[in-house]
Amino acid sequence: MNPLSENQLDYLLAKAKHDQRVPSDELFKSALSKYQTQFTRRPQGPRIAFRTSTPAVALITALILVVGVFLGRVSWTTSSHSSKAPTLTVKETGSCASQGAGPVMPPTGLGFAELIPAKEITPYIVRGQKYAKQ
Amino acid sequence: MTDDRDRDVNLLRNASNGNEWAFCTLFEEYHRAMFRCSYRLTNSSSAADDITQECFLQLVMHPERFDPKRGSLRQYMYGMVRNLSRQFWRVAGREVLWDDVLNDTEETSISFDSLEQEELSRAVQCAVAQLPPLQREALVLVAFEELSLQQAADILGTDLGTLKSRLFRARGALRRILRPYGEHAVSPGQKEVPHESFE
Fold first, then answer.
1. Count of domains in chain B?
2. Residues of B with CB below 8 A from A30's CB?
């Protein structure tokens, strides 16, 4: 049996070309659903997540502030050479030294206090001074 | 042409920014062609559905990958369909001889006693599915999707000579596979169908 001629093959290909399958009805729905999941609903995600985690964010922020104050109290008493306390302006009035706590190693690496601007930490430092005086 | 590309770029940008209307417009315009192409490449309707869907999702997820200077969105999407079809074959675990010479299929499993149009089309599709993938890609893009040789070469990332060679081998293989259909291949009063020589 001889192979088809070029014309015969073209005829068959043309016939096959007219028989064009159509995608299933579900294709559009499925694609649109996935698109909506990944795109049109995406902007709402962060807002929802933020709302649900607001208490956690507040708690962490408060914790950072408390730890920052605490580290500030420790650092200002122990290390006179601790130059890393530009924001802790009440260094010489620390409480640990007056209470005889002895030398305490300065905090290393944590640096929470350094991250907090002086303006923001001032109230806590003032409160710390009160404790020191007591 | 440039207007079409600008329009496609705008639609793509809007779709990737969450504009549902833009996504639907793009989908409506191109999904049939992408489905057809992926069906021809995979010979599976369900796989073609998956590939078409994945093609659109990847398109809007990574709009920056489309460079309108290098070609139209349609061409770019054909390239995506081609890559996804290759992934399909890899995942399916089929052993693929990408550009191997097809064995002489003397005994084909296709039956065609009373060939209707649909059966004939199915037979051709089965024959196309038997081609090595590289030849099949070339044939599908040029013969079925009616892209120019240069456009197909760009999509396939090859040069014109290689593409023509693949087309020539693909057509030769199809002529052998489909030879049992010879008597059905000429309609009454058929004109001579002009064809392009790929040699």
1. 2
2. 49, 53
Query: Which chain A residues touch B16 with a CB distance below 8 Å?
Result: 39
Residue B185 banded pLDDT, cuts 50, 70, 90: low
Q: Which of residues 79-118 of A touch B (CB under 8 A)?
A: none
Query: Is residue B105 located within the same domain as residue B73?
Result: no
Domain extent at residue B66: 1-95
Q: How far apart are CA A97 and CA A100, in angstroms?
A: 5
**Tokens 């064809």 sit at which residue?**
B195
**Cβ pair B185:A11 closer than 8 A:** yes
Q: What ipTM describes this predicted complex?
A: 0.73
Q: Check CB contact under 8 Å for B35 and A7.
A: no
B63 part of contact set with chain A, CB < 8 Å: no
pTM: 0.61
Chain mean position to CA B81: 8
Question: Is the CB of B101 inside 8 Å of chain A's CB atoms?
Answer: no
For helices A118-133 and A44-78, angle between their N-to-C axes, nearest 10 degrees: 40
Say if residue B198's pLDDT is above 60: no
Instruction: Please check whether residues B1 and B90 belong to one and the same domain.
Output: yes
Q: How confident is the model at residue A17 (pLDDT cuts 50, 70, 90)?
A: confident
Q: Say whether residue B191 is in contact with chain A using an 8 A CB cutoff.
A: no
Dist. CA B22–CA B14, nearest whole Å: 6
> pLDDT tens digits, residue range B4-49?
888 899 999 999 988 889 999 999 999 999 999 999 888 888 899 9
